[in-house]
Amino acid sequence: MFDDAIVADLWRYPLSTLGGERCETLRMVKGGPVGDRTHGLFDAETGETAYPVRDPRWNRAPDIRARIRNDCPQISSDGQVWLDAESEAARDMLSLHFGRAVQVRRHGTALADGTAARPRYTMAPVHLISRQALAQLSRLLPQSNMDARRFRPNIVVDLPDAPEGIPEYNLLGQRFRIGNVTLRGVSHCGRCGFTTLAQGELPGDPDVLRTLVDRFQRNLGIYCVIETEGAIELGQRLELPQPRPIVIVGAGQAGAMAARSLREAGHRGPVQLIGDEAHPPYERPELSKTLFQSVPQTDAMTPDEAKRLNIDLSLGQRVVGVDADRCRVTLADGSNRDYARLILATGGRARNPMALSGPRVHRLRTRDDARAIALAAPRRLLILGGGWIAMEAAAAARAAGLEVTVLVRGPALAHRLLPPAVSDHLAALHRSHGVDLRLGVSAEFAVDDNAVRAKIGDSEITADMLLIAVGIAPNDDLGRHAGIACDGGICTDAAGTTSNPLIHAIGDVASQPGPAGLARIESWQNANDQACACVRAMLGQPLSARAPLRFWSDQFGKRIQIAGRPTAKARLCNGPGDGDRPFWDFGDFAIGIDRPQEIHRFGSAPRPKTARRQPPKPTGPGRFLVAGSAVTEGAVLRVDDPKLGALAVTRINGQVHAVADACPHAVASLSDGFVADGHIVCPVHFAEFDLVDGTPRNAPAGCGKLTIRAVSETGDRS
């Protein structure tokens, strides 16, 4: 994978936040490169650590360079005259440069107020980046100067034979050698607004951070730890002697798609796919849609395909533990498998909240479940539940000639998901085909060898079989065992990364960001889309905007299709139209029955989700703020107003917005950030603030609203 990989550049940064020095040799110890980030800049009066971007007064820090001579750090503003960093002359130069009293202190020593000098942040000691990663970013930003100094690496490597993407991501979870030094990749390197700052002859460039956020989840390069000390020299080879595999636990739709996508994306390292069922990966939607029908089942990956793609497919193997510290999974037979990266695609298990059991009680989640239900050949089927599985199973059973009763505890079918108009239409569809549908009921069940009985008040229903279809519980046990964040599933970002950078989760088990917070999405399309996004993020390939969610269900010869993420309380914008083939447009999502063209158009064409909201308008006499021509579309401009103070001004869809140029949760200038999706984004912690009302999202706990200023535009005056 890394033939002809060599060290192209070496850097160290004796003073945090200042520019560094290029080296021909770096001595590596457990704490990192010798002489790297040993000292910091501090406000001489307050003891505050220099923090560019978060506090714009420090933004000129990269203009000053630092080096080590005779084991002492030196600094220079021009590369010609060098001063001992802790000398009085250096203090005077720094104070003049920043416009306030500044001191240099070795980390761990005492400041003027008696507290210890601490670094701005503590990460893994070595930062590595590849020329190929910089080249990929350059292709997306051809007008930008993508110098490695923007990213402050210690090691720049050239990986000429590497796959597409950010090839150093293939070193995460791996032990590799450079010279006599052994390193291990431990995490992505998350970027902040520092990458946008001017540094010497490098101009400031906010597009760099914006692109990293939009396309690479804010990451570029990796952090490494030193496992064997030694020295690294320019031109030495990078060697990966025994690459660990990417291990995928869960051989269902999402797991199979992730394995296939790794190969399609160019990953050449070992891949293992482990499933606890004896069957090769198969598609689950047809289990309920074709229940009681003798139709061929669809495989998501055959053993022949796995062999052709060089994927190690292990079936009938259950993973029972994850040791995140050692990057190892344990199987039920006691064997262990090491991994470089781990993908958990463990899905969910069918719920049985009443703990009912017996030969006449069934759940439907696996191919074996469907086969057992069909072989039992019931004549009278009782279904508990009102979601998609319950509806599809009822429709399939009626098509097979069974008597079907459906008991729903809620007031309507899929009442937490579907608006009432849609639920009512589906209820009428089922009743018109002979389903005994009972809504808003609670039952007491009795099960014996001869029958299942459900008592509802004074009445009793007798059936040959009870199918419990009340949803699934996520199989997040391995995530909890690994110590990663779980809340109704394994918590992930949009591309499946968990709180551990080497562990990912996809499919039904993943609780991913949505409009109302983290939520699991149980759909065939999401399993595929999230698997692909996860793989691209793992390999450092640019992410594209996710397609709108789509879902379909076949019932009684009708195809129900959804585009977007439905909510039960949504207001109808248009519809339903044709009584037999209704189409409901709810603005953010649409639902149609036998209306594929309309669903396709809805999910494919750009649509205004809501009427464009307007920022507040000034009342009373106004005053000139800035020339309208200076406020360009999508750019953020800092304007100092004598009464309101510093403002961040931008233009979105032609509309001018003005907000306080201070993030509510950090001492950061929002004019150093950027705008996206109607929000202005903080360049430090990436909190997003609505430009109309200041509401935060993706913000730290306790973050308040942003102050919005009323502004209007007349001619060329704002």
Automatic annotation (TrEMBL):
Residues 623-718 form the Rieske domain. Pfam families: MOSC, Pyr_redox_2, Rieske. It comes from the Bacteria. Its cofactor is FAD. Keywords: 2Fe-2S, FAD, Flavoprotein, Iron, Iron-sulfur, Metal-binding, Oxidoreductase. InterPro entries: FAD-oxidoreductase/Apoptosis (IPR050446), FAD/NAD-bd_sf (IPR036188), FAD/NAD-binding_dom (IPR023753), MoCF_Sase_C (IPR005302), Pyrv_Knase-like_insert_dom_sf (IPR011037), Rieske_2Fe-2S (IPR017941), Rieske_2Fe-2S_sf (IPR036922). Residues 91-241 form the MOSC domain. The keyword Signal does not apply. Residues 600-622 are annotated as: Disordered. This is FAD-dependent oxidoreductase.
